From TrEMBL:
The protein's name: Prepilin-type N-terminal cleavage/methylation domain-containing protein
Organism ancestry: Bacteria, Pseudomonadati, Myxococcota, Polyangia, Polyangiales
PROSITE patterns: PROKAR_NTER_METHYL
InterPro entries: N_methyl_site
Top-level lineage group: Bacteria
Length: 201
C-alpha cells in the first residue's frame, strides 16, 4: 500500500456500520450494568430490612425479659396479670393468639420507622415495621396442667411490606399469616423466666 493511499484510508473516519456495531455493543453492556444495579439495589434493601427487623425483634425480647422482673409471685400469689406490662397478654390472650404488644410510652411501641425506632403518638414518621407477640405456657398436653410455672415461651414476629410501602400496623395478624408473598417477616422465639429472687428469701 502506498503512503498516499494509507493517508486517504486514515482520513476517511468510521463507516456507519462500524458506528452502529459499536453502539449495539455499548447498549448490550449498559443493559447488563443496569440489570446488575437493580438486582444489587433489591438485595441491599432486603438485607437492610432483615437486619433492622432482627434488631427490633431482639429489642422486644429484651423488653420482655425486663418485664419479667416484675413477675415475681410474692408469697406464691400470681401477679403476672397485675404487675407486668406485656406478659399479662399470656393470660388475657393465650396461645395461639398473636397480637401487637401494648404501646407504652417511653417503654415500647409495636410500630417502628425505617430505622427501627419506635413510633409513638404525635410522631409523623411512617410505619415501616410492625411487631406481633404470642405467648405460650408450657403445659402437659394430656392433662392441660402447667409443667413449668415460672417459664413462658415468647414468639416475636416483626413484619414489613415487601414492596417498600409504609405498613398499617393495625392489620390483623391472620392477614399476615395468609399473605406470605406480601409481607416480609423475622421470627424470634425466646423463653421468659419469672423473677425468682423472692423464692430465695
Amino acid at each position: 500500500m502506498s503512503a498516499a493511499r494509507a493517508r486517504r484510508a486514515a482520513s476517511r473516519g468510521y463507516t456507519l456500520i462500524e458506528v452502529m456495531a459499536a453502539l449495539g455493543v455499548l447498549a448490550i453492556g449498559a443493559t447488563g450494568v443496569l440489570a446488575l444495579q437493580k438486582a444489587t439495589l433489591i438485595s441491599n434493601t432486603n438485607a437492610r430490612n432483615l437486619a433492622i427487623a432482627n434488631s427490633i425483634a431482639m429489642t422486644w425480647a429484651e423488653r420482655l425479659r425486663v418485664d419479667a422482673l416484675q413477675w415475681n409471685d410474692p408469697m406464691r400469689v400470681p401477679d403476672i396479670d397485675s404487675d407486668t406490662d406485656w406478659l399479662t397478654l399470656s393470660t388475657t390472650s393465650p396461645f395461639p393468639a398473636r397480637l401487637p404488644p401494648t404501646e407504652i410510652t417511653a417503654l415500647g411501641a409495636p410500630d417502628a420507622d425505617v430505622l427501627g425506632a419506635d413510633i409513638y403518638p404525635g410522631d409523623t414518621s411512617a410505619s415501616a415495621f410492625c411487631t406481633h407477640v404470642r405467648f405460650r405456657q408450657f403445659t402437659d398436653p394430656a392433662s392441660g396442667t402447667r409443667i413449668w410455672e415460672s417459664l413462658i415461651r415468647a414468639e416475636i414476629r416483626v413484619i414489613w411490606e415487601r414492596n417498600g410501602d409504609p405498613i398499617n400496623c393495625g392489620i390483623a395478624p391472620l392477614t399476615v399469616d395468609t399473605n406470605p408473598g406480601r409481607f416480609g417477616a423475622v421470627y424470634l422465639t425466646t423463653g421468659v423466666l419469672r423473677n425468682t429472687s423472692e423464692d430465695r428469701r
